[in-house]
Amino acid sequence: MSKRKYKISVIQLNLNDVAENNLKKCISWVRDAASQGAEVILLPELYSSHYFCQSEDVDNFALAEPLYSTSFVAFSELAKELGVVIIVPFFEKRMAGIYHNSAYIIDTDGTEAGLYRKMHIPDDPHFYEKFYFTPGDLGFQAIETKKGTVGTLICWDQWYPEAARITALKGAEVLFYPTAIGWHPKEKEQYGENQYGAWMNVMKGHAVANGVFVAAANRIGLEKYIEGTEGIQFWGASFIAGPQGEILAQASHDKEEILIAEVDLDLQENVRQNWPFFRDRRIDAFGDITKRAIDK
User: Fold this and answer.
1) pLDDT tens profile 58-89
2) Which Pfam family would be a valid example here (predicted)?
3) Could you tell me if residue 126 is left (phi over 0), alpha (psi between -120 and 50 degrees) or otherwise beta?
4) Among the listed residues 159, 160, 162, 114, the one whose alpha carbon sits nearest the alpha carbon of residue 141
5) Which of 118, 146, 147, 204 is catalytic?
């Protein structure tokens, strides 16, 4: 059962390095977050490598790992040692030819509380994820841990109110979004402010519409590893929001940081009592939402 109050953390990092170094780095930062009182700790999307989806290259499949191998072993031991919950986003090799963009939810005793596979897979310039990732098949979940009941969605899932709604309806108190999102450098001046603003606003909207806490952990830094391209400038700005969309903690665009905020379930209940959006949902009128388009 969830405590009425517990502390969550998002860790914002530059992860433009090899797997071994990224693992050591993340372990160190998780230790720091735990020492500051964090009880549920979130890492950025695909923590173990640079963001390889900037190109379609079969060699990048070598970055994937089978379930319960390197990442799980390392963070399972760490979670048990520290007594914290750790959300670990990783590149999963399910079998030859089937790979997922996934996240472990590792409980305080080192066991797997849950596994999430990214449901929405983008295909944009330098975000060629459809080449690598099979869409998730585990659905949207609320995962019970010894600290609280949490939901994990991943990056592109951020834009879908249906994903947030279902996860919240299943009982998630916090929506965690491990993320790898940034600007194309040549577009930043013209579009950058609106792109970043939309990203913030849609997730704050999920917090308000569902009366939940929302936490997003992004990367920082310019990742430019393909000759003849400008790379991606990850915009950081990781944040934690409360159930009215209020910003409880906010990171910079360009620094490695730990954010910590308190989840207060009494506050959440009070917000939902005063803004009873779940009560007033017209579920009898929502059937069309399952259609690809509503044709006239």
Assistant:
1) 999 999 999 999 999 999 999 999 999 999 99
2) CN_hydrolase
3) left
4) 114
5) 118
Is 295 within the bounds of a domain? no
Residue 104 covered by a domain: yes
> Which of 53, 146, 155, 257 does the annotation list as catalytic?
155
Report how many domains make up the chain.
Answer: 1
Does residue 246 have an active-site annotation? Answer: no
In a domain, 296, yes or no: no
Q: Please report where in the chains the tokens 């975000």 appear, as a residue.
A: 127
Q: Verify whether residue 26 is a known catalytic residue.
A: no
From 7, 39, 45, 257, the catalytic residue: 45
Q: Tens of pLDDT along 119-152?
A: 999 999 999 999 999 999 999 999 999 999 999 9
2 pLDDT more than 70: no
Q: CATH number for the domain including 11? A: 3.60.110.10
Q: Is 291 a catalytic residue?
A: no
Q: Which residues, including other chains, have CB under 8 Å from residue 79's CB and lie 6 or more apart?
A: 85, 86, 106, 107, 108, 109, 110
